[in-house]
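Margin note: ligand = flavin-adenine dinucleotide.
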Amino acid sequence: MPTDTKTEKRDPGPDLPVVKMHLHNPKAPGTARVVKSEICTAGRRAAGFVRHVELDVSGTELAGRFRAGQSFGVIPPGQDERGRPHQLRLYSIASPTKGEDGSGNVLATTVKRTIDEHWDDHSLFTGVCSNYLCDLKEGDEVLVTGPNGKRFLLPERPDEHDYLFFATGTGIAPFRGMIQDLLDAGVTSRVVLVMGSPYSSDLLYHDELTALAEKHPSFTYLTAISREGEGKVYVQDRIGTHAETLVPLLEDKRSLVYVCGIAGMELGIFRELHARLDPGRLGRLLAVDQEAGDPTGWNRKMVNRQLKPTRRMFLEVY
Ligand code: FAD
Ligand code: A2P
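Resulting structure:
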């Protein structure tokens, strides 16, 4: 059902903090040093290879000047097939604003090795930067840029809101930092994280998140496993399986929704919001134009056109 887009256009959403950006650019990158690199999947037999990599950025412009939710750039060495220097790739900062060290000098990211068969000739395809980052050893130097991003952030007054975070795969990275920021600030808000992985062995930071949920009753950690057990469960399916808690949370005017991970997941979430929420309340998160038609026909090209997330919904998909 179409929602009242007029009302939504007027909603400025929460105030966001003003953040520093592009303190280093590709022409003048900073030099960071790897201080830790460890597997961060829950099981050694995980289907994918994902590493938690910590970089000491002290001495660079990033030190003490990044925020949870932002990303940074990594410039891999070498050249592409056309002989041009490799371009930077962006990685989400997985640390809280205070960094891994408590003073903003060490930031972490969560890198998944891109490994596949080549589309053209079925030879082994290994992504340039993700494998470079995952191969780095403690003490190695790496060229960094950033920070990047001024919108995928917690609001200026976090206590005024409740939070629903949807992550798939490495999309957990920014939420690890944001959740830590919220809990450190002692907010009394409700904080729910829904984390999606193919297998339970692929859950990232699982022990850490489980421990946080045990320690903080305001924080709920739910998982959605897509290739195990009875059937496929995607993050958006949790809105239905946990409707008693999640639907009122989603319909509450305090709530902010953050989505990070695999490109396309936002559509599934939009469909589920459309199906489950009271049409009047849906508009607080998502404005659906009349031309959007039947939700089964929604596609990514319609996002920000016929399907317009409001300023209370934050998307970072890649
Ligand atoms: P590349 O060498 O760039 O290869 C990937 C590209 O090759 C694809 O874009 C595609 O065009 C092509 N390709 C893919 N598969 C094949 C195939 N089978 N055959 C032929 N060609 C193929 N990633 C993370 O792991 N963690 C993060 O926290 C993270 N955060 C991000 C935040 C933002 C804001 C953005 C935009 C991206 C983020 N990424 C993150 C993704 C990251 O930037 C890189 O895109 C990813 O690591 C792959 O880079 P790569 O250099 O390893 O692969
Ligand atoms: P699947 O690949 O089984 O279909 P990872 O990055 O570790 O591969 O995890 C990505 C997770 O997101 C997987 O569980 C994957 O399921 C799931 N996923 C894939 N497509 C979507 C989608 N459109 N909406 C939500 N989750 C998705």
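The longest strand covers residues 30-39.
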